[in-house]
Amino acid sequence: MPALAARDTTGSGLRPEVWSTRLIFLIVGIGTAAWASLVPFVKLRAGLGEAQLGLLLLCLGLGSIGAMPLAGAAATRFGLRPVLILGTAAIGLTLPLLAGASSALILGPALLLFGAGMGAVDCAMNIQAIAVERAAGRPMMSGFHGLYSLGSLAGALTAGTLLTLGLGEPGMALAATGAIAGLCALAWPGMLARAATAGGPAFAIPKGAVLLIGLLCGIVFLTEGSVLDWSAVFLVQDRGIAPARATLGYAAFSVTMTVGRLAGDGIVARLGRTRVLVLGALVAASGLALATLVPDWSAALAGYALVGAGCANIVPVLFTAAGRQTAMPASVAVPAVTTFGYAGVLAGPALIGFIAQATSLPAAFMVVAALLVAVAAAGRAVRV
Q: What is the Cα–Cα distance from 301 to 381, expressed in whole angstroms?
């Protein structure tokens, strides 16, 4: 597949590339859900304490962050297709290893490789998504990211069902690997050998618009990570909710996030990217304040649902902005923005913990809400 040039693609001209991009986002969602389902089994089988598990999870994050700039450089030199294939292979092949390993000496390197695969594919798929959206001449990024969210939900439900039916962790991991391999084969024809967004140096320090976009992306990912890791703790500890029910807070966030992204392209087309960025950040900040300040179970659910709805299309809009800015080539800008995002995911839970230790968990959540207001204030300065 040659480089994708800008052209009118309102018809079927881009159909293979569009479907390929959707399937790649779906693959990453499924891989994420499969690993999340394995975490408690890995902890138990390897006899890990919380601190040891935290160090292992750090291996995953380090693998992802380390692979992103390398993936951007490789995409520039060798094209997107090799990066997507090798990254997807790293995801699929390490899942069965993670499902059966009981030694930290095996789990650590396996998680580094798994994280590197996730980071490489995350970077390359966003470069491809930018190229496809640019060639199509219409908003598409929210829909692509919606497939990631859908893959995460579907993957989690499927993994839970298979484990409940007694298939076991290795069987579930093999099923996930098979699904990833099948989806990769279907995505192959539409993978871009090279994108018109490629070019420029292999590495560069983020500057100007890219730095601002990266910081905003980091805040939104920090918000998502704080809801993932701390919402249930907050509802149990500060609201007295039973642990089984407390998980519904993140579930409400996930559902509105997924629905918002799947409907996001139409929303962006109607409202414009700047309004989606500014209003989305304000809605998310309001939702987090509602969940934190109003001592009512239904208010908490509504609040976390608003956080998901508000955040849903901010990151897709920011990735589009990374492709539209002219300070740096997209093959360099996208890895930089993605790295900021992953840094937010990694640093967010720890930051919440430190603030909560010094003050309180509600105060920590309100700091995140204030950061979202800052995203809204800075949103008008981003060329989207």
A: 32
Asked if the domains at 15-190 and 208-379 fall in one CATH topology, the answer is: yes
Q: What is the CATH number of domain 15-190?
A: 1.20.1250.20
Element (H, E) at 186: helix 168-187
Please give the class, per CATH, of domain 208-379.
mainly alpha
37 vs 294: CA distance, rounded Å: 32
Phi, psi torsion values for 80, nearest 5 degrees: -75, -40
Rounded to the nearest 10°, the torsion over CA 284, 286, 288, 291 is -140
One-letter identity of residue 370: A
Matching residue, tokens 């920090």: 222
Residues 197, 335 contacting (CB under 8 angstroms): no
CA-nearest of 324, 340, 301 to 382 is 324
Model pLDDT for residues 314-348, shown as the tens digit of each residue: 999 999 998 888 778 777 888 888 888 878 877 77
CB burial of residue 248 (10 Å; 0-12, 13-18, 19+): middle
Burial class (CB in 10 A: 0-12, 13-18, 19+), 46: middle
Model confidence band, residue 93 (pLDDT cutoffs 50, 70, 90): very high
Q: Which residues contact 51 (CB under 8 A, 6 or more apart)?
A: none
The predicted pLDDT at position 9 comes to 41
Q: State pLDDT tens for residues 205-248.
A: 677 888 999 999 999 999 988 887 788 888 888 888 887 677 78
d(CA 304, CA 249): 6
> What pLDDT shows up at residue 195?
61
CA dist 75 and 198 (Å) reads 7
Question: If you ran DSSP here, which 8-state letter would residue 326 be given?
Answer: S
